[in-house]
Amino acid sequence: MFFDLQNPALAAEFKANRDSVVARYSLSSEVRSAIRENNVPFLAERTNAYLLRYYFFATGMKDAEFARRLRGG
Amino acid sequence: MADFAGAFAASHGPLIVREWESIPSNDKQRLEKAFKELGRRVTAARLDVLIAVSPDHWANFFLDNYPAVCIGVGETNEGPPEPWMKAYPHRNLAGHAAFAMHVAEEALRQGFEPSISHRLKLDHGTCIPLWRMELPKMPALVPMLVNSIEPPMPSLARCLEWGKLLRKAIESFPGSLRVGILATGGLSHSIGEKTMGAIHEEFDRETIRLFGSSEQDLIRYLGKELPSRGNGSEEVRNWLVAHGAAGGRGFELVDYLPVPAVIVGCGFASWR
User: Fold this and answer.
1) DSSP string computed for B70-117
2) Please, what are the domains in chain B?
3) Which residue in chain B is spatially nearest to A51 when comparing CA positions?
4) A59/chain B closest Cα distance in angstroms
5) In angstroms, what separates the C-alpha of B264 from chain A's closest C-alpha?
6) How do strand B178-184 and strand B3-10 relate by DSSP bridges?
7) Cα dihedral A50→A54→A56→A61 (10° resolution)
C-alpha cells in the first residue's frame, strides 16, 4: 500500500478516505491500527525507511514531525 | 571507439527541491554554486552520453523484484514521478539504446549480471542534480540503478569493479561518443530511521580524503563505518562506481557542506 500511495490519485483518495483505501489491502489488525493512529515507530519496524518517509509525506506529515515520532517523541 | 570523458558526483536529497526556499541563504548559495560548477564541468566535457548512477527510490521497483543493478537500455527514459518534482522541465529524457545495450552485453561477457529495463522512470536521485546543474544541453542518459536503499546491497568492492567495467565498456563501444558518468547521492544522511536528520561530517570528510587515497583504504574505511553512519550514506556506492571508472585516480572535491535544512552532508566532486 505504501508503494502504491506514490500514485498521486491514490494518495488523494487516501487522504479523503483512509479506511476505504486500507480496506483493499490484506493487513493485520495491528498494522491497520498503526496506520489509523499514525504509529510511526510500529510501522518503522516493518517498512523500508525510504518508503515509510514517502508514506508519511503523502499523508501530509512534515519531515520534522516524522523524525520526532521516529524517535518515540 | 567511444571516449571516457569524465566522472562527476553530486548529492540529491529531496529537500534540495522540496525545502529549497527555506534553506539558509549561505548554504543555498554554496549549493547553487557547487551544482553550477559541476554543470560547467559536465558541459565542458561535451558529453554525448551520460551514465547516471543512482538508487531507485521505489519509482520502478518494489520488494517483489528489486535488482542489485539495473541498466536502462531504452530509447527514452521517463521523468521523475514524484509529485514534488512536477516542475522539473523534462517529462521524457532521451536514452542511448545502442550504447546501453553494449554496456549490458559487455557486463554479461565479463561475469556481471545486471537487470535490464527498456523503460525506466528517473526519480529525484537522477533528476535533482541534472536540474540544479542547469545543463544547456542534456546528453543522452543511460541510467544505472544501484541498490543502496534495501538490504542486501551490492558490495562496495563490486561497485568499484562495476566502474572499471563501465570504463571498459565505454572504450570498447564501436562508435564515436564522449561518455561521462554522474554518480548521485550521499554523503551522510539518515532517512526514516531513529537517527533521521543526523549528518556525520567527520565521516564525510574522511571519506572525501580517502577518495584521494588507495582503493583498499577507502573500501576498508567505508566497510567499517557505513553501518553506523545513516542509511542514506550507503549511496556512496554510486561514487565508488564513478571512482572505479576513473581508475581510482583524479578525485577532485568541488565542495562539501553539511546542510541541516536538507538533512544531508552535501558533496560535489569530479574526477580529472
Assistant:
1) EEE--SEEE----GGGTT-S-SEEE--HHHHHHHHHHHHHTT---EEE
2) 3-271 (3.40.830.10)
3) B58
4) 13
5) 13
6) parallel
7) 110
Is B58's CB within 8 Å of A54's CB? yes
Contact A3 B193 (CB under 8 A): no
Give the closest of A8, A49, A54 to B193, CB-based: A49
Domain ranges of chain A: 4-70
* pLDDT string in tens for chain B (272-residue length): 899 999 999 999 999 999 999 999 999 999 999 999 999 999 999 999 999 999 999 999 999 999 999 999 999 999 999 999 999 999 999 999 999 999 999 999 999 999 999 999 999 999 999 999 999 999 999 999 999 999 999 999 999 999 999 999 999 999 999 999 999 999 999 999 999 999 999 999 999 999 999 999 999 999 999 999 999 999 999 999 999 999 999 999 999 999 999 999 999 999 98
Nearest by CB to A48, which of B15, B149, B196?
Answer: B149
* Residue B179 · residue B2 · CB < 8 Å: yes
Residues of A with CB below 8 A from B63's CB?
A: 48
